[in-house]
C-alpha cells in the first residue's frame, strides 16, 4: 500500500484506489470504499499558484531584489577597478604631499581658483540674446493675430500670446530695439528736420 493522499485514498497492491477501512469513535468499523479510476477529490487537486500574484504577496519580505549578486565574493577586481584604485592612491599621496609643502602652495591654489570660474557674458550679448527671443515671440504672436483676423479659431494659449503683442513691443523698446526687432539707431539729419517742423 502507498502513502495516503490528503483525502485518505491509498493505492493497494492491485493498483486499485480505495479509502481503507477505519474505526469509528463508537468502536464499529467503517468498510473500505473503492474510488473510481480517474477521480480526484478536491482535497487532492493541487492549488494553482500564480507566480505574479505570489510575488505580489511576498513583496516587502526578504532581501532587496538583485541583492544576492552583491554578496558574491569577487576574487579578481576588474581592470577599471584597478585603475580607479591607483587613482585613489595617487590622490591620497598628492594630498599628503600638499599638506607637507605648507602655506606657499595654498596661496597659489587660492590665486588660481578665480581663474577657473566661467567668464561672465558680455551684457551687450545678453541684451541681443533677449531681443532675439522677444523678436521670435513677437513674430509668432503676429502670425497668430493674422490667423485670428482670417477667421480661424485659436486656443486659449494662442489668444494669450496675441494679447501680449504690445507688451513684447514695450520690452523690445526698453532694450533699445524697434518693433521689428532691429536695433534703434540715431536719427538721421532728415528725420531730425521732419520732427522739428
Identify the notable features of this structure and list them briefly.
197 residues; mainly alpha; three-stranded antiparallel beta sheet; two-stranded antiparallel sheet; 8 helices; 5 strands
Structure summarized in a few sentences:
By secondary structure, this protein is mostly helical. The protein is built from eight helices and five strands. Helix content is 52%, strand content 6%.
Question: What do you see in this structure?
Answer:
With 197 residues, this protein is mainly alpha-helical. It contains 8 helices and 5 strands. It has helices at 51-57, 68-71, 79-101, 103-116, 123-149, 156-163, 165-175, 189-196; strands spanning 10-11, 17-19, 22-23, 29-30, 33-34. The strands form 2 sheets. Strands 1-2-5 form a 3-stranded antiparallel beta sheet, with no helix packed on it. It has a two-stranded antiparallel sheet with strand order 3-4. The longest helix has 27 residues, at 123-149. The model is unreliable at 187-193 (pLDDT under 50).
Amino acid at each position: 500500500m502507498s502513502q495516503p493522499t490528503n483525502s485518505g485514498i491509498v493505492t493497494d497492491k492491485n493498483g486499485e484506489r480505495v479509502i481503507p477501512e477505519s474505526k469509528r469513535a463508537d468502536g464499529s468499523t467503517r468498510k473500505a470504499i473503492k474510488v473510481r479510476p480517474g477521480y480526484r477529490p478536491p482535497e487532492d487537486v493541487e492549488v494553482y499558484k500564480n507566480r505574479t500574484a505570489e510575488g505580489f504577496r511576498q513583496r516587502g519580505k526578504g532581501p532587496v531584489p538583485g541583492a544576492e549578486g552583491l554578496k558574491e565574493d569577487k576574487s579578481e577586481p576588474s581592470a577599471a577597478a584597478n585603475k580607479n584604485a591607483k587613482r585613489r592612491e595617487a590622490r591620497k599621496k598628492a594630498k599628503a604631499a600638499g599638506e607637507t609643502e605648507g602655506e606657499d602652495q595654498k596661496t597659489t591654489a587660492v590665486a588660481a581658483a578665480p581663474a577657473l570660474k566661467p567668464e561672465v557674458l558680455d551684457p551687450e550679448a545678453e541684451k541681443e540674446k533677449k531681443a532675439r527671443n522677444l523678436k521670435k515671440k513677437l513674430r509668432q504672436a503676429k502670425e497668430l493675430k493674422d490667423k485670428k483676423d482670417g477667421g480661424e479659431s485659436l486656443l486659449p494659449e494662442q489668444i494669450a500670446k496675441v494679447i501680449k503683442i504690445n507688451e513684447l513691443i514695450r520690452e523690445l523698446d526698453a532694450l533699445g530695439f524697434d518693433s521689428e526687432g532691429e536695433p534703434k539707431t540715431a536719427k538721421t539729419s532728415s528725420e531730425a528736420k521732419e520732427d522739428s517742423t
